[in-house]
Amino acid sequence: MKGFILMERIRVGIILGGLSSEKEVSLNSGRNVFDNLDRERYEPVPVFMNSDGALWIIPWQLVSQNTTADIADRLEREAGRVAYEDLGREIDFAFIALHGKYGDDGCIQGLLEMLRIPYTGSGVLASALGMDKFMQQKLLEASGIAVPRSLVVTECEWRQHPGAVRDRIAARFSLPFVTKPTREGSSVGVTIVGDPALLDDALEKALAWDTSALVEEYLDGTEFSCIILERHGVPEVLGVTEIHPQDIFYTYDDKYMPGRCRKFTPPRTIPGDAVEEIRREVVRAYRALGFRSYGRIDGFVLSDGRVLVTDPNSSSGMAPSSFFFEQAAEAGMLPSMIAGELIEGAIAIHKSKKGPL
Ligand SMILES: Nc1ncnc2c1ncn2[C@@H]1O[C@H](COP(=O)(O)OP(=O)(O)OP(=O)(O)O)[C@@H](O)[C@H]1O
Ligand SMILES: [Mg+2]
Questions:
Q1: Is 278 in the same domain as 138?
Q2: How far apart are the CA of 210 and the centre of ligand 1, in A?
Q3: Is 218 in the pocket of ligand 1 (CB under 6 A)?
Q4: From ligand 1's centre to the CA of 202, what distance in Å?
Q5: What is the predicted pLDDT for the residue at 224?
Q6: What is d(CA 113, CA 110) in angstroms, rounded to the nearest whole number?
Q7: Atom of ligand 1 nearest to the CA of 186
Q8: pLDDT tens digits for 144-182?
Q9: Which one of 184, 226, 250 would you pick to mutate in the ligand 1 pocket, going by the greatest count of ligand atoms within 8 A of its CB?
Q10: pTM (two decimals)
Q11: Is 2 part of a structural domain of the chain?
């Protein structure tokens, strides 16, 4: 056995599924992480969260199911229910592959903090900020980072004073403008409003997902997305991807249907000085929101060269075609390498924290 060091494998719980509108996206992410973890260093433990928020350790046969409903149907027979308080006996580390509400908004992070299980991504507050488009804009603005002009409409005021809400929007925005739920992802509930007659429906669509909606000026420019990976405490831009949606905007289908949308890493039409500006601004946004471990920060470059941050996310899709793995590939990293680096970086971050992250 000379020269052979036997290393204890880290049991990595890959948490997937969940309670949000993005549970199917999460299944794709989790499956891809499961497939790509280096088995010599990590023991992947797939942990499925069902639509009640209960956790189940599932066999690999269930990981490869097409939908979360297919998995849910087979849980009782083929999976093992694990109570929250027992999760720490099953895993040493949590790779959060959940997206959206309860998944990257601070909820699961708070649970993992209580259980003393280290995890990928940001802590409770930064995750909540990454999800709340209204609050993040306030903080980014205060840090001198350009964001779209916006106003918030609560469900309560819309139900009680719809006329006043319509007037307030008309006074602030010319057509087109954008409506979206304050806290959602994957473009769910987003509308580009090009006709005043469509406003009511657009607000209803956004308010179906949250108790407030955001109305934003429409940005006519080129969209970009950047993965930031924290290395030894320093946030580094993994890559910049330029996005050309097929739809009028970057819709759910554009995001997840293979071959729908054209993406260029590195950017093809964004000028070099704007790319440098993007790299600076996304790191500033990462720091302003207190993100840790990694994040995905999206924005627009306008025709006058201005760079705006529109959507800082404290987590990222992890499917094979995601920005995370595409930008890693462009940087010369195999999926197993980047996944390993993310885990090791997160473990180091959790080792040095004082109280919750
Ligand atoms: N102010 C805007 N001007 C123009 N287009 C916009 C604006 N806001 C959003 N969009 C379009 O709508 C899409 C979804 O909006 P946004 O990025 O806010 O949502 P999200 O649901 O958080 O997405 P993700 O899953 O990428 O986190 C964007 O990718 C963009 O194409
Ligand atoms: Mg988002």
A1: yes
A2: 16
A3: yes
A4: 14
A5: 98
A6: 5
A7: 25
A8: 999 999 999 999 999 999 999 999 999 999 999 999 999
A9: 250
A10: 0.95
A11: no
Does residue 344 sit in helix, strand or coil?
helix
Position in ligand 1 atom list of the atom nearest CA 317? 25
What's the domain count of the chain? 3
**Gap from CA of 213 to ligand 2 centroid (Å):** 14
**Residue 132 beta carbon below 6 angstroms from any ligand 1 atom:** no
**Each residue's pLDDT tens digit, 37-87:** 999 999 999 999 999 999 999 999 999 999 999 999 999 999 999 999 999
CATH value at residue 24: 3.40.50.20
How far is 15 from 29, CA to CA, in rounded Å?
10
| C-alpha 186 to ligand 2 mean position (Å) | 6
Structural tokens at position 245? 């949606």
| DSSP code, position 84 | G
Distance 313 CA to ligand 2 centre (A): 5
247 C-alpha to ligand 2 centroid (Å): 18
154 and 141, same structural domain?
Answer: no
Protein residue with its CA nearest to atom 10 in ligand 1: 249
The verdict on residue 112 lying in a domain is: yes
- 273 and 190 belong to one structural domain: no
Domain span at 204: 150-217
Extract the tokens encoding 149.
């002009």
Helices 133-142 and 124-131: angle between axes, nearest 10 degrees = 100
Out of 217, 243, 276, a domain closes at 217
Residue after which a domain boundary falls, among 177, 195, 217: 217
Shared-domain flag, residues 170 and 102: no
Q: How many angstroms separate the CA atoms of 121 and 343, rounded?
A: 9
pLDDT per position as a tens digit, 97-124 = 999 999 999 999 999 999 999 999 999 9
C-alpha 204, offset from chain centre: 24
Q: How confident is the model at residue 1 (pLDDT cuts 50, 70, 90)?
A: very low
314 lines ligand 1 (CB under 6 A): no
Q: What is the CATH number of the domain that holds 320?
A: 3.30.470.20
Question: Tens digit of pLDDT for each residue in 220-229?
Answer: 999 999 999 9
- Same domain? For 270 and 135 the reply is yes
Terminal Cα-to-Cα distance of the chain (whole angstroms): 40
Q: Is position 124 within any domain?
A: no
Cα–Cα distance, 77 to 59 (Å, whole number) = 11
- Residues 248 and 339 placed together within one structural domain of the fold: yes
Ligand 1 within 6 A of CB of 313 = yes
Among the bound ligands, the one closest to the CA of 244 = 1
